[in-house]
Amino acid sequence: MGGDLFSKLLMLACLSGCFFSLARCDVHYYDFVLREKNFTRLCSTKSMLVVNYSFPGPVIRVHKGDTVFVNVRNEGYYGLTIHWHGISQPRNPWSDGPVYITQCPIEPGSNFTYKVILSTEEGTLWWHAHSDWTRSSVHGAIVVYPIEGTTYPYPKPDDEEILVLGTSWFLGDINELVYEDLAIGAATPMSDSYVINGQPGDLLPCSQESTYRWVVDYGKTYLVRIVNAAMNAQLFFAIANHSLTVVGMDGNYIKPVVRDYLMISPGQTMDVLVTTNQSLSHYYIAIRQYYDAIPQLQTYDKTNATAILMYSGNYTTPEYPIFPSSLPSYMAIPAANRFLDSLRSLASKDHPVNVPLNITTKMYITIALNEFPCPNASCSGVAGNKMASSLNNISFLNPSTDILLAYYRNLSGVYTEDFPNWPPVFYNFTQSVLPDNTTIPTPGTKVKILNYNEQVEITFQDTNVLNASAIHPLHMHGYNFYVVGSGLGNFNNETDPKTYNLVDPLEVNTIGVPKDGWVTIRFKANNPGVWFWHCHFDRHLTWGMSTVMIVKDGGTPETSMLPPPPNMPSCKVPYKSTWIEDFGDSDEQVNKN
Do 113 and 72 touch, CB atoms closer than 8 A? Predict the structure, then answer.
């Protein structure tokens, strides 16, 4: 069946469901066409894969609870997938997107229509490629407005602006560079610069004319929607002489926090109110990397990307915009911690929290950078070995077909169900020198199985393996979770739980585990399916810092996974010496146990 016809049938089915439902249901349709396009940045012209010829890509605008169909046609040179970051996709992992986790790639010359189901999300989210390092140029914002007839839990802003913060490799093909480094076990390539809405800004070569400019009117309040689409960097953000009131994060409302800078991790989004009450002039919007690791594995990108906030009206244009003096320095760890410690959920009548209190599953997961030995120390990583990373000392291996297909079809040999609840050994995870036997992980495709409605608590513990402790932004697909506690040092299971915040903990889908510290989260496993857990530093993800959570069906149609669409990208699955092709299952075609 052709992609366009199938998309129309999907829309008709959704509209029919809305007709027989009391709830409002708006359906939206987008076409994403992936093509190579030439871009000129940093005095160089190169071709990049982008959506609809734009970098960043198109904005999706919806209301809370809507459904979106996105027909993705790949006219590029290699296969890819798209992930709808922060959208829970109730019962619908088929459209979640991570390659070899929930689908195989959309190959060149083919298309796939994603069904994106919104539920409780409200605020700013985003979409991005979820295969190789393609998301560096394939990404864009998702704006989720309140349900019509309702409004924000703060005075309605006069206007809004979207700022997508990203990473650029304008001086080379990033996927080729990564493949070269992986082949020799080296650290992955450092970016050429950071960008704001696709532009490096005034302070970088050949960039002054193309700097992104945002024109504002005096005396208005703007809702600024910020997405950190950078590949491997937490970013400090500031606007010269303007206060920032953070009111939302990861598609959830928070108690308003007023600051003169932000720290935002890759994968995170923030909703920020900015009142334009300064003298008519030009003001820099600036970002720089927050770097808290010891630069032994690789140096970091020290560029300062800028955009310009420009007041409308009659005034003398300054020779240079004002630079934000409040922007913290690169390694300002206390500044980052102060900002993160100030964030709390709104926890109001209209936007309540529902923290799980009767925990049925507890996990303690260590996070580490590791190495695999190379013969005669012939690789280019630490001490001549190959770079790796792990969770509970398991370095994740992508299978040759997607795990969701294997789970749905009860295929063996694709993954094992033995991801551990605890690390293999306990020691002082944050001490300055760790035993040599902590550096080598176990490779495997190990998943965690959860029963429907289990109430789960996970403590993530950073470690100083290879003297490489650092903050790790961990992202959970299919769920939001509550951040009930965090701290520095080793987690103490007797004293630290007494400090948990069960009243207004932050509700997010991505959280940074502190350098040499820990974070505890809670969630209820009520979204059946196959869901990816991973660090949102792509270099760590590439090295194996990820796992998969499979949540079983709940026993009724309403608590079970939806059936797969018939147009899933084809997978060739080695199973008992048989190759299975053209995954086009329906309920009638698959007998699922």
Answer: yes
* 8 Å CB contact between 63 and 104: no
Look at residues 335, 314, 366 and name the one whose alpha carbon lies nearest to residue 259.
Answer: 335
Q: What is the dihedral of CA 430, 434, 435, 440, to 10 degrees?
A: 80
Strand partners, 140: 127
Distance (Å) of CA 394 to CA 69, 209, 422, 423, 593: 36, 48, 11, 9, 28
Residue-wise pLDDT for 117-150, tens only, equals 999 999 999 999 999 999 999 999 999 999 999 9
**Distance, C-alpha 577 to centroid of its chain:** 36
Query: Which of 135, 79, 84 is closest to 111 using CA atoms?
Result: 79
Taking the C-alpha atoms of residue 89 and residue 456, their distance in angstroms, rounded to an integer, is: 19
Distance CA(533)–CA(30), nearest Å, equals 27
Written as one letter, the residue type at 486 is S
Mean pLDDT of 63-91: 97
Amino acid at position 178, single letter? V
* Burial per residue of 20-29, b for 16 or more beta-carbon CB atoms within 10 angstroms, e otherwise: eeeeeebbbe
Compute CA distances 312 → 279, 315, 475, whole Å.
Answer: 11, 9, 40
Q: Take residue 456 and report the two structure tokens written for it.
A: 């789960």
Threshold 0.85, pTM exceeds: yes
Question: Band of the pLDDT at 24, cuts 50, 70, 90?
Answer: low
> Between vectors from CA 427 to CA 426 and to CA 429, what angle results, nearest 5°?
110
Which pLDDT score is estimated for 256?
98
Question: How far is C-alpha 360 from the geometric centre of its chain's CA atoms?
Answer: 27
Q: 591 Cβ partners below 8 Å, 6+ apart?
A: none
Digit-coded pLDDT (tens) for 488-547: 999 999 999 999 999 999 999 999 999 999 999 999 999 999 999 999 999 999 999 999
| CB 216, CB 312: distance < 8 Å | yes
Type and span of the H or E element at 76: none
Residue 297 is predicted with a pLDDT of 52
b/e map 363-376, b = 16+ CB within 10 Å: bbbbbbbbbbebee
Handedness of CA 441, 442, 443, 448 (dihedral sign): negative
Residue 592 banded pLDDT, cuts 50, 70, 90: very low
CB 420 within 8 A of CB 392: yes
Answer for the pair 232, 472: CB distance below 8 angstroms, yes or no.
no
Q: Which segments within 467-583 are labelled E, that is strand?
A: 472-476, 481-488, 506-508, 510-513, 517-525, 529-535, 546-551, 573-575, 578-580
DSSP string, 311-344: E-SS-PPPSSPBP-TTPPPTT-HHHHHHHHHT--
Q: Which two tokens stand for residue 440?
A: 């080598």
Q: How far apart are CA 221 and CA 69, in angstroms?
A: 33
Report the Cα 232 to chain-centroid distance in Å.
11
* E strand or H helix that includes residue 5: helix 3-19
State which amino acid sits at residue 168: S
Residue 176, number of CB atoms within 10 A of its CB? 12
Structure confidence at residue 69 (pLDDT): 98
| Token pair listed for 485 | 């506690």
